[in-house]
Write a structure and sequence with these properties.
The complex is a heterodimer of chains A (306) and B (96). In chain A, 37% of the residues lie in helices and 16% in strands. By secondary structure, chain A is an alpha/beta fold. The longest helix of chain A has 21 residues, at 283-303. Chain A is globular and about 55 Å long. Chain B is α+β, with helices and mostly antiparallel strands and 96 residues long. The two termini of chain B are 30 Å apart. The chains are: A alpha/beta (306), B alpha+beta (96). Chain A binds chain B through residues 4-6, 8-10, 118-122, 156, 158-160, 195-196, 244-245, 272-277, 279-280, and chain B through 1-2, 4, 9, 11, 30, 35-39, 41, 45, 48, 50, 73-74, 77, 80-81, 84, 87-88, 91-92, 96.
């Protein structure tokens, strides 16, 4: 059962998928599994839905679209267990779940994640071949229809930031796009990556500030302050283009342009020593501190309907 | 399985826009096989890059020639990955 799952260790895709099924089986009145599509290699794109009623607005969280960011998927697993543990006990989370659904995609790029466990630990992209090139895969965080093809993404298939042949060319991206559009009532969208300790909001493809910048900035400050309260981990925050670099075709630029105001992307811990091979003993501290920031964003979303 | 023996990850600290420009031009040379974990964007952000063993010395010389400061963040990536795998196997064998 999920009490026996080792949250302080990294796990294969099969183990995470088994965890998902166990969590659903143990909490049938709160958790269900939605398959929103399949990856290029035919793996299911599993999303956990935490819900206490029908027709609710939703909050989306995805972890680890870049496959080698193992601490991200591991944190996503911990979040899932945290939600079922805290519902009914933590008043803030309970209030949120009594009014809103939470959707959690723990392994956003399953082909890439499986590949990091079997063939290349440092793989980042999807696994779809590129016609005419020996290099495989697309950077799924440059493949969204938001400034697609602009500066801050590569048109060269062998680049780590290859944007793909056209927007939504990757099923891992298109499946989320279809889900977001069909749901139509998502109020927050948080896409979680690692590493470099940042909390970012739109835009990445343009230096024009988004219309909600002041609110998003203030909320980011609150979230990273809450995060730092646990272990003192220092985050920077701001718009993508001002804080990290210009990046076109990014996830949250698209979700924001779809009308999801509270669109954020995280970059989790960087100890400055291990990069993507962050030791497993940092999984739980990373997840714990990130949860505080997630709760800040979710509570603000709950308290500020639009 | 991809082998990362001898690959190092350098943490490079550019100190001016010219050095950032030099690092950006390096990032464009795809045939070197460099894997930028963080990209050169400003003097406030260090640049982390995985460098395959076969180009390690030429890249270090290139950085020195351009007076660009760096430190070794990961001495041998394969050692770290082997340790990661060992920990995973050990932990999975332990009772919860």
């Amino acid at each position: 059962n999920t009490d026996g799952y080792d949250y302080a260790n990294y796990h294969t895709l099969n183990e995470i998928n088994s965890f998902i099924d166990m969590l659903v089986a143990e909490n049938p009145n709160l958790v269900s599994k939605i398959v929103i599509g399949q990856s290029y290699e035919g793996r299911p794109l599993n999303v956990l839905k935490f819900s206490t009623g029908a027709n609710r607005p939703g909050i989306w969280i995805d972890t680890g679209i870049h496959s080698r960011e193992w601490v991200t998927q591991a944190s996503g697993t911990w979040f899932a267990k945290k939600i079922v543990t805290d519902y009914g006990r933590d008043p803030a989370l309970t209030a949120i779940l009594n009014k809103m659904d939470i959707f959690l995609e723990i392994v956003t790029n399953p082909d890439g994640y499986a590949y990091t466990h079997t063939s290349n630990r440092m793989w980042r992209k999807t696994r779809k071949p590129n016609s005419g090139y020996s290099c495989v895969g697309v950077d799924p965080n440059r493949n969204w229809d938001a400034g697609f093809g602009g500066a801050g993404a590569s048109g060269y298939p062998c680049s780590e930031t290859y944007r793909g042949p056209y927007a939504n060319s990757e099923s891992e991206v298109k499946s989320i796009v279809d889900f977001v559009k069909s749901h139509g009532n998502l109020k927050a969208f948080v896409s979680i990556h690692s590493y470099s300790q940042m909390l970012l909001y739109p835009y990445g493809y343009t230096s024009t500030p988004c219309k909600d910048q002041s609110e998003l900035h203030a909320l980011a400050k609150k979230a990273i302050t809450d995060l730092a309260s646990l272990y003192g981990t220092q985050y920077t925050y701001g718009s993508i283009i001002n804080t990290i670099y210009q990046a076109s075709g990014g996830t949250i630029d698209w979700t924001y342009n779809q009308g999801i105001k509270y669109s954020y992307t995280f970059e989790l811990r960087d100890t400055g020593r291990y990069g993507f091979a962050l030791p497993a003993n940092q999984i739980i501290p990373t997840a714990q501190e990130t949860w505080l920031a997630l709760m800040a964003i979710m509570q603000h979303t709950y308290n500020n309907p639009y | 399985r991809e082998n990362f023996v001898g690959h190092q990850v350098l943490r490079i600290q550019p100190t001016n826009e010219e050095q950032i420009s030099v690092l950006r031009s390096l990032a464009e040379k795809h045939d070197l096989g460099l894997d930028f974990w963080t990209e050169p964007v400003s003097v406030t952000k260090p640049v982390d890059v995985r460098i395959p063993f076969k180009v390690l010395q030429p890249i270090k010389i290139f950085l020195l020639e351009n007076d660009i400061q760096y430190s070794i963040m990961i001495q041998d990536l394969q050692d770290l990955l082997d340790e990661e795998e060992r920990v995973m196997k050990t932990r999975s064998a332990q009772p919860r």
